[in-house]
Inverse folding.
């Protein structure tokens, strides 16, 4: 057995001890922040890091195993720690900003990360959402940290030594540090970022120690100097020394701000003040307990419970708060869009291409007050930058395709989220839907072609053109829905409704799949439906053909009706995991993750196809959706370091699990409906923000009983293959009678199918 496998087994066994002894763990105790951390650039099992943070907190912390600047800041297979880093990284591919690191050391005074690094073991590591502890073997130091939203407390337990130190690394690419011995403080700023920031971007930090310094040393661009207290340079830092007794604890209060040094101190005093380490830890646990406890799961295996709450934890991290409270307690933010300090909310670090699908609908169901602030922040983004972001980290980033800010805005409003200026956001949607933006990934690349022809052509040197067309058509559908809700002119409503049908231009009847189309109306040639990229985004035609969220009936009609539609769905799973990677020049990790999953050409590790299993409900065969959702839940998720089947992506892949474990999923955000799968647990209770509860009962649920034989809603027989958001928000009790064999009569006619544009317009 390999060292890494032994450690993973030990971790899982350790996590299971409480349940094995008959205890009932709280949700916060079931979370494994290490889930998904056994990843690398060539193969993602989540590409996560242990985010030690509060829900939606402005600052996260992580134990750093990677080199400075590496997006893979923590990898489970690593055996050395270089420090504890404040991070704002949404994914390794996007990398980080606003980052600096602390590291306790003993012995020789040193600074460089490879020199200060220490061996560690997962056996001497505790990772919880609100608390982290590890033993640093080379220094004989136990390090602990516990966060608030914008601050944190550290506790370092040293051996007896006159050479105990804490290193503060402000990192390279421009930083500043100053040691203030009389105040036992280190202050400074870091400017290191990966893009999406104005010229004046800085993350200001303040560290305050509970011990006086026995020595101080400044680091500047490869040189240590014990005679200086301040430095500005490419790479700066500080080392402060202590003389400690065996077991003596040196504690540090830390906070930061994107606004000013004074605001960093204000954040420190407001969020920690006189609270000791255990008080901060207790408050952090309570914050997670409140949010995680909104969903109460009963029954299921220990692994299922741990997977569920670990995924729920991941669903409550992004988008992160990017606002602060000024001296008067008013909400303010540094704008990464114009470099000014402005009033109001701002959230960031999310890519709508990923998260419009399930993460934002999940917020609308369970945490609408949070999404109200997010939407208010989008108003500010548009007014400060002129566009809505499609990927923000912290400002506009030039990655991915689509115009899915439309989905995020519309779904929130239509599901009752309020507290912001929807008319400003509607104006922003119209601008984004009809114009290319300052970056290819802002607004709509190929907007003029799309408007004139109804599609973005394959042969006009706009990459991933078919994917763009399909997503633009869905986004136009959502705009038409909002236009109607806002009472806009009928002509305007109809324009976007008609444009929502542009997906039809790319359907190739010869292959029965979506295909890139040239300017002259001919389809791209040659065509390989297994070719990743090219006309599509991180997927192939077998994946993107299903990206007609709003009109599955229309897609089904193009395919010739329910029978060929279901046959094509079935084929995705029965195909060999073949692929053509020639567009990329190598096998990208998303392809490899599909290949090894053992589910044919179904690529759950990436977002475009994640809704596909639910489409059987539209064709009168809901039992197949029930079968395949359970297969994905069981086979592709585990509460372990290799627990995901691809990039977790800012809560999207986790939100898929949470929704699917409940038994329903938002196939088409911008409508009122959730499409049924089948519940995973015998009982789940959702505590909604409005005080109502949704109770999902499936008492005879089991590994064998995965099919819905009968469903009642509030005591009445319910035959539909979908649930209404509004009905759930009023409080509801759903009773599922689960069975080992499919009920081929329930939900078997098209009248029970979920919403489709083509059906609604009849």
């Amino acid at each position: 057995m390999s060292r890494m496998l032994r450690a993973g087994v030990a971790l899982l066994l350790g996590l299971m001890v409480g349940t094995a002894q008959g205890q009932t763990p709280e949700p916060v105790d079931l979370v494994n922040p290490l889930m998904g951390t056994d990843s690398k650039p060539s193969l993602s099992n989540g590409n996560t890091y242990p985010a030690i943070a509060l829900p939606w907190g402005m600052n996260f912390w992580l134990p750093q195993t990677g080199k400075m600047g590496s997006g893979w800041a923590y990898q489970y297979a690593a055996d050395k720690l270089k420090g504890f880093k404040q991070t704002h990284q949404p994914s390794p591919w996007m990398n980080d900003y606003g980052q600096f690191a602390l590291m306790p050391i003993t012995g020789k005074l040193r600074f460089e990360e490879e020199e200060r690094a220490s061996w560690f073991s997962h056996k001497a590591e505790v990772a919880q959402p609100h608390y982290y502890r590890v033993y640093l073997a080379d220094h004989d130091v136990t390090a602990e940290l516990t966060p608030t939203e914008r601050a944190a407390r550290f506790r370092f337990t040293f051996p007896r030594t006159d050479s105990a130190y804490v290193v503060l690394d402000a990192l390279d690419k421009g930083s500043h540090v100053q040691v203030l011995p009389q105040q036992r403080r280190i202050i400074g700023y870091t400017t290191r970022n990966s893009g999406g920031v104005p010229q004046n971007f800085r993350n200001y930090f303040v560290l305050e120690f509970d011990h006086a310094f026995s020595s101080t040393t400044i680091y500047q661009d490869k040189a240590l100097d014990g005679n200086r207290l301040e430095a500005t340079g490419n790479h700066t830092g500080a080392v402060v020394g202590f003389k400690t007794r065996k077991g003596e604890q040196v504690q540090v209060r830390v906070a930061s701000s994107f606004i000013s040094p004074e605001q960093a101190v204000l954040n420190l005093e407001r969020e920690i003040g006189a609270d000791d380490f255990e008080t901060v830890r207790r408050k952090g646990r309570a914050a997670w307990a409140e949010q995680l406890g909104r969903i109460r799961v009963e029954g299921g295996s220990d692994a299922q419970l741990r997977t569920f709450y670990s995924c729920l934890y991941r669903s409550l991290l992004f988008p992160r708060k990017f606002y602060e409270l000024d001296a008067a307690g008013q909400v303010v933010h540094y704008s990464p869009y114009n470099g000014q300090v402005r009033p109001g909310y701002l959230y960031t670090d999310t890519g709508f291409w990923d998260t419009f699908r399930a993460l934002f609908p999940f917020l609308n169901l369970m945490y609408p007050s949070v999404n109200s602030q997010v939407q208010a922040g989008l108003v500010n983004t548009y007014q400060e930058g002129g566009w809505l972001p499609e990927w923000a980290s912290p400002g506009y980033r030039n990655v991915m395709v689509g115009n899915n800010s439309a989905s995020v805005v519309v779904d929130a409003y239509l599901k009752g989220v309020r507290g912001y200026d929807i008319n400003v956001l509607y104006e922003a949607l119209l601008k984004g839907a009809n114009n290319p933006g300052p970056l290819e990934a802002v607004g709509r690349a190929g907007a003029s072609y799309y408007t004139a022809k109804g599609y973005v052509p394959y042969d006009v040197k706009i990459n991933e053109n078919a994917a763009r067309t399909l997503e633009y058509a869905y986004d136009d559908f959502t705009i038409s829905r909002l236009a109607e809700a806002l009472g806009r002119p009928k002509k305007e409503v109809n324009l976007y409704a008609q444009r929502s049908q542009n997906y039809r231009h790319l359907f190739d009847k010869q292959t029965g799949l979506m295909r890139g189309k040239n300017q002259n109306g001919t389809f791209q040639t040659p065509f390989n439906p297994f070719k990743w990229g090219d006309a599509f985004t991180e997927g192939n035609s077998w994946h993107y053909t299903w990206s007609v969220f709003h009109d599955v009936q229309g897609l089904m009609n193009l395919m010739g009706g329910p029978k060929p539609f279901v046959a094509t769905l079935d084929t995705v799973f029965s195909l060999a995991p073949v692929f053509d990677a020639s567009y990329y020049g190598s096998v990208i990790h998303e392809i490899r993750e599909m290949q090894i999953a053992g589910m044919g050409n179904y690529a759950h590790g990436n977002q475009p196809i994640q809704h596909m299993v639910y489409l059987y409900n539209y064709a009168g065969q809901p039992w197949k959706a029930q079968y395949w959702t359970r297969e994905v839940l069981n086979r592709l998720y585990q509460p372990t370091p290799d627990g995901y089947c691809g990039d977790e992506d800012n809560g999207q892949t986790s939100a898929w699990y949470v929704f699917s474990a409940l038994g329903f999923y938002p196939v088409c955000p911008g409508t009122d409906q959730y499409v049924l799968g089948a519940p995973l647990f015998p009982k789940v209770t959702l505590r909604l923000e409005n005080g109502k509860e949704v109770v999902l009962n499936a008492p005879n649920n089991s590994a064998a009983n995965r099919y819905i034989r009968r469903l009642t809603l509030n005591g009445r027989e319910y035959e539909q293959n979908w649930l209404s958001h509004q009905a759930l928000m009023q409080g509801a009790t759903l009773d599922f009678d689960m069975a080992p064999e499919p009920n081929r009569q329930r939900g078997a006619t098209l009248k029970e199918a979920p919403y489709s544009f083509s059906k609604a317009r009849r």
Q: What stands out?
A: Confidence is low (pLDDT under 50) at residues 1-22. The chain is about 30% helix and 20% strand.
